[in-house]
């Protein structure tokens, strides 16, 4: 099978043996796979949980396709099922999927659309419901809402009963599109008045919950936009992995600040996250009520162009590789 690996001279497509499914695994013929920011980190030698740039290890962590073979003990899937999942080795013609962490692809949804969903859905449900403890009727701020997971976060917040959803983006064109994905109010976090706008929208209280993809030196304004005894769940650090942190502000507002990385979770914890997302959002997924826009589709052989587009950060939504 063809597989995209990080070779001695950078990413390249090579031929590898088709893997065999073990117990509770299925073999999936991949039709589409999508890029994530972590793929760029891995290309630069970093690790992402169990994923790394090992020789002859296919890259990628999100795919959609068709089940073609069952391993021992598989009960919930059959050959021919259309499935999507997050998992290692996605950038290949075949991938192994674990029985408990796959989602059925809704009828009428393309493989290209399906591959954009799993990472965003499970990340945002975990951030909002489990770590964020979102309650019906509360307010949510998605910092960095024009990322793929940010767009999903606004939709999931609405599905979970949020009364007010605020999204931020520093890009005017992207900010104008946030309302299409659930934002009741779209703000520019570089605007000196953005915190006041949040306070105005929440009767001076601030939001109950922040899902933060930005961090860096924006964190203090983020805390000012959060209500007393509110919660901040950090997902990304687009504005920097370090910065000035006002500990007194954090203390006086009695804020709970939560880190929510998947990279330090064990397999059982990840299964629990995915099962929780499927249970809470399964009907919304089936109804195609959750979506991430497909920014661009590239043929598998044109992977270099896809990676370059992601590196330039000009995309809105997900960049997809079409394998079949």
Summarize the structure.
The protein has 324 residues and is an alpha/beta fold. It has 10 helices and 15 strands.
Structure description:
The chain is of the alpha/beta class. The protein has 2 domains: 2-116 and 293-322, Medium-chain alcohol dehydrogenases, catalytic domain (Quinone Oxidoreductase, Chain A, domain 1, Alpha-Beta Complex); 120-259, Medium-chain alcohol dehydrogenases, catalytic domain (Quinone Oxidoreductase, Chain A, domain 1, Alpha-Beta Complex). The protein contains 10 helices and 15 strands. It has helices spanning 37-43, 111-114, 118-131, 148-159, 172-175, 194-201, 219-224, 247-252, 267-286, 303-312, and strands at residues 2-7, 10-15, 25-34, 62-70, 82-86, 94-98, 102-104, 139-143, 164-168, 185-187, 207-212, 226-234, 256-259, 294-299, 318-322. The strands form 3 sheets. Strands 3, 4, 5, 6, 7, 14 and 15 form a 7-stranded mixed β-sheet that branches. The radius of gyration is 20 Å and the shape is globular. One of its GO terms (molecular function) is oxidoreductase activity, acting on NAD(P)H. This is Quinone oxidoreductase. Keywords: NADP, Oxidoreductase.
């Amino acid at each position: 099978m063809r597989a995209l690996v990080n070779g001695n001279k950078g990413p390249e497509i090579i031929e590898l043996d088709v893997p065999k499914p073990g117990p509770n695994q299925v073999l999936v013929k991949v039709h589409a796979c999508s890029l994530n920011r972590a793929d760029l980190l891995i290309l630069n030698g970093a690790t992402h949980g169990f994923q790394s740039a090992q020789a002859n290890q296919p890259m990628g962590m999100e795919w959609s396709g068709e089940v073609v073979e069952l391993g021992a003990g598989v009960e919930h899937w059959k050959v021919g099922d259309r499935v999507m999942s997050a998992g290692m080795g996605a950038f290949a013609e075949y991938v192994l999927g674990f029985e408990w962490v796959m989602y059925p692809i809704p009828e009428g949804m393309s493989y290209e659309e399906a591959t954009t969903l799993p990472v965003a859905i499970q990340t945002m449900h975990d951030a909002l419901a489990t770590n964020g403890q979102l309650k019906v009727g509360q307010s949510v701020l998605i910092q960095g809402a024009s990322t793929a997971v940010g767009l999903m976060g606004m939709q999931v917040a609405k599905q979970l009963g949020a009364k007010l959803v605020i999204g931020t983006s520093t890009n005017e064109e992207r900010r104008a599109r946030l309302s299409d994905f659930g934002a009741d109010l779209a703000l520019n976090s570089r605007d000196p008045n953005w915190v006041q706008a949040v306070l105005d929208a929440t009767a001076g209280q601030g939001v109950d919950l922040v899902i933060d993809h930005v961090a860096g030196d924006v964190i203090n304004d983020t805390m000012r936009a959060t209500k007393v005894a509110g919660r901040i769940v950090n997902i990304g650090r687009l504005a920097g992995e370090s910065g000035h942190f006002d500990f007194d502000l954090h203390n006086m507002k009695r804020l709970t600040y939560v880190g929510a990385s998947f990279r330090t979770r064990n397999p059982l914890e990840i299964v629990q996250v995915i099962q929780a997302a499927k249970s809470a959002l399964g009907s919304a997924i089936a109804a195609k009520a959750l979506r991430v826009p497909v920014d661009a589709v590239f043929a598998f052989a044109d992977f270099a162009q896809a990676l370059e587009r992601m590196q330039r950060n000009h995309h809105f939504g997900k960049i997809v590789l079409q394998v079949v």
